[in-house]
Amino acid sequence: MSGTVKWLVIGVGDITTKRVLPAILAEPRSRLVGIVTRTPAKAEAFGVAGWTELETALNEGDADVVYVGSPVALHAPQTIASLRAGKHVLCEKPVALNYVEACTMRDAAEWSDRILGIAYYRRTYPKLLRARQLLGDGVIGQPVYAEINCHSGPPPQSGPRSWFVDPAMSGGGPLYDIASHRIDVLNFLFGSPRRVAGQMSNVVHQLEVEDSATLLIEYESGMRGVVDVRWHTHQDRDDFRIIGTDGEMQLSPLNGPRLAFKGREEQLPTHKNLHYPCIEDFATAVLEGKPPAAPVAEAIVTDWVTEQVMRQNGRV
């Protein structure tokens, strides 16, 4: 392949408009060549072709990569169609509505010999990469416990983002939306989970999806992590700490630059566009034939964790 990656983006929603499309336009090896949207006129603002149907875009366009930025229920069919058309795919998180669907996406990537990555962009945070190095160096001894949470208000129940509270489209509430990122962070740092216990509830908002979820994940090393996510608070929280046998690592807020351990503190800010390093990384993966930051085989572990919790709470 030449030194240019041509992108087709599915969806002109909040994340693609604010982050993904600007990242593709800014990444020097990337070129936006088309958008799939219910309103093709939206593509005109970006000076590219617009299609209402993915199949037509795949047949008529010349993209190398498809960015799947649609609701979760569409991830599997759109990703598989794109892979079968010979395209590499970078898909929004979580991978799919359930673990079986996620596995079919992984299998389709293997069959097509295309790269399938998932947009767990926190894997590209300088702070998390540094934390992974420090944990490997044993700076806080053996990690034994981690606590990570994210609390915010609920998403809109009407308008273009109302699909977040429709389980048929989103899969679930904060468990799917914000816990998936944080489960992946723990998997990225600590490896393979072996046991999961979780509770889901509607504490404040009587939605069709839960408004809170709490998980306990045990890893092969014996390390345990707690993930707590909520859509019913007026005070936002984004906390993360790791306790080891010889100290503690503080990473709160997760999206902030601060990393503290053993009386030391480092400032490692994220890129101003959180998706830019993810787009940059995937372009490199395509051009150099290397795994992306969040390859599907690793990313679907989060879907496995989520499904254990859904089953324990009678949601599947």
Description:
- This protein is an alpha/beta fold and about 325 residues long.
- It folds into 2 domains: about 5-120 and about 275-295, 3-Layer(aba) Sandwich (Rossmann fold), CATH 3.40.50.720; about 125-270, Dihydrodipicolinate Reductase, domain 2.
- It is built from 11 helices and 14 strands.
- The protein has an 8-stranded mixed β-sheet with strand order 8-9-10-7-11-12-13-14, covered by helices on one side. Strands 3-2-1-4-5-6 form a 6-stranded parallel β-sheet, sandwiched between helices.
- Strand 12 and strand 13 (about 260) form a beta hairpin.
- The chain is globular.
Keywords for this entry:
eight-stranded mixed beta sheet, alpha/beta, Rossmann fold, 316 residues, 2 domains, single chain, 11 helices, six-stranded parallel beta sheet, Dihydrodipicolinate Reductase, domain 2
